[in-house]
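SAMPLE LOG
Freezer: B-3
Tube label: C17
Construct: single chain, 130 aa
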Amino acid sequence: MVEWYQMCQSDNGSLTAEHALRKWSVNYMRALEVLKDPRAPMQLQTLLREAGMANVETKMIPIPLCPWPRDARERQIGERIKAIVSDTLRSHALFAFTRNLVMPIREFDELISGASKEAVNPDLKAYFPL
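STRUCTURE (predicted):
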């Protein structure tokens, strides 16, 4: 089982609450709370074991949002993600932010613009946990 955790992280700890990318994540989690527990990916091992499954292992894989990793394979993944990150941030959040959070479209566009720029900034070393 694979689950994507939408709270963006930073490999070097430089992503703060003031960054648009972190604001995107916080808002996305808030918008999903009306439908499901957005933190469930971080609890999968416990949930699966409580459901009676055995031999459950978990592993967090950081998916880089741009080519910042030193490892060649991870860097290539970051390069590919970089090409779609802006569209992904927008498409995942448009309905949730404008309907569930009643965010005005202008505010949404500004948030997406800022988050997209930060996502491809290699200095932030941003990633989504998978």
